[in-house]
Automatic annotation (TrEMBL):
Pfam families: OsmC. SUPFAM superfamilies: OsmC-like. InterPro entries: KH_dom-like_a/b (IPR015946), OsmC/Ohr_fam (IPR003718), OsmC/Ohrsf (IPR036102), OsmC_Ohr_Peroxiredoxin (IPR052707). The lineage of its organism: Bacteria, Pseudomonadati, Bacteroidota, Flavobacteriia, Flavobacteriales. Coiled coil: none annotated. It comes from Formosa maritima. This is OsmC family peroxiredoxin.
Length: 152
């Protein structure tokens, strides 16, 4: 596979806040942009509540990568499922005098209709975490606690 490049432009707007956009996500037909406000989280001096922070985006990158990898593997494996969701937690702490995202905790929940598919669904979740390119690109510990729900 050839290299892929993903462009992101971040521009400071005011205080501890800016806007993040990607030219690849703009819709040329409607002239809409797909930008996000980003800011220092409120736990830090002059941080701002209710705005996406780098810490949230880091955690979201791991969680959303698990989902998209799960979708690819389950599709290839022909696993039929009703729903997928993945609450997650990013743990920020000071290690050796530096702030680091030391751990990302993932809590994927997959709803299936057939009890006989429970073990298979669990294996696909685990395989998805191991294949996730974001998880494979970071030094943070990634922990997984999955739940399989049977819905008839």
């Amino acid at each position: 596979m050839e290299k892929h490049v993903y462009n992101v432009d971040v521009t400071w707007t005011q205080d501890r806040k800016g806007i993040m956009c990607s030219p690849e996500l703009n819709n040329a037909e409607t002239q809409e942009t797909n930008c996000l406000e980003v800011a220092t989280p409120p736990e830090f001096p002059n941080g701002m509540p209710h705005i996406w922070s780098p810490e949230h985006l880091f955690t979201a990158a791991v969680s959303s990568c698990l989902m998209t990898t799960f979708l690819a593997i389950s599709g290839y494996s022909k696993l039929e499922f009703i729903s997928f969701k993945c609450p997650s937690k990013g743990i920020l702490e000071k290690v050796d005098g530096k702030f680091v995202m030391s751990e990302i905790q993932l809590f994927p929940e997959v709803v299936i209709a057939d009890e006989k598919q429970r073990d298979r669904a669990e294996r696909i979740i685990e395989k998805s975490e191991k294949a996730c390119l974001i998880s494979n690109s970071i030094t943070s510990k990634v922990t997984l606690k999955s739940t399989i729900i049977i819905q008839n």
